[in-house]
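hey so i finally got around to running the thing on that chain from the lab meeting. sorry it took forever, my laptop kept dying and i had to restart like 3 times. anyway pasting the input first so we r on the same page abt which one it is
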Amino acid sequence: MIRIILLLLVYSSALAQNLIPNAGFEQIYTPKKSRFSGNIEKANPWFPAGIGSPDIIIAGENMNGKQIAAEGCNYTGIILYDADNKDFREYLEVKFMQTLTAGNEYCLRFKASVADESWVFTDELGILLSADSVRSNDWNALDLAPTFKTRKYETLSDTSNWINFEFTFVAKGTERFLTIGNFRNDASTLIQSARKDVWLRLSYLYLDDFYLGACKTNQDITEPLDIAPENSSDFEHLNITENGRPIIPNLITPNGDGFNDVFVIGNLKRYCVLTIFNKAGNQVYKSSNYINDFTGADLPDGKYNYELRLPEGSLTFGSFDLYRTKKK
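ok and heres what got predicted. didnt touch it at all, straight out
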């Protein structure tokens, strides 16, 4: 009886531990000479999965904004999109402390925040759980399907707060590595203008405070996580907390060039009612659960007004311009 109890305690303790080493990037080392250009390897055993290397950001040394760490002093930053370098990507990868056990339920948590100096926002953040490392010898997008990813048209755009991601899944028993980044090429990546004049035209994302282990109820998680798994049977409980008001664009240009083609509202919650009117005051569009999919359809170019009613009943309104060709 005592032996069985001890075994259960050992099992419980093993599952309760965080299987992601150096989860907050607090342990900094001097790495050996590397073929990679960045400094993520200072936070060993994290490493880049390509030539493009995520940055380790230490308090007071942030070139892309003023965000403080979600926990501790350090965090990392990755490029999800680079307008000046075609298909340039940065991926963050780490090996778990042990291979996941088949049939066990695990919880994965991390925090993300968009850099203040991001030129554009994107809806492409993917997580890959794999048996082997996916290291690449170039900087291009990895030709791999992530295990799960952010939903289409729901851009990461909060530059003021840390977004708490958390989900549970049942392990297949082969997972040993985690890789995070944008797994789509530029042509397939939705971008939304951040309307900022910055020196680097990037979508840059901060990441911090990773956890993989036993699932515990997190009282701070209050809303459904806007992440859609590639295989819904593998994942069950998805949650998110995101602070911040809706960020509504003032221009869309639905001309098929992949830039501002869709009326994308940042920080959009579920069950928001969006109504759009033409200049004459006539209703031309309405959705009782807007999902960032309005493209203007066959509407003529011009100015439109909108009303966005939030789930709690408050109303936001304004106007935007719709142009398929650039104004001369």
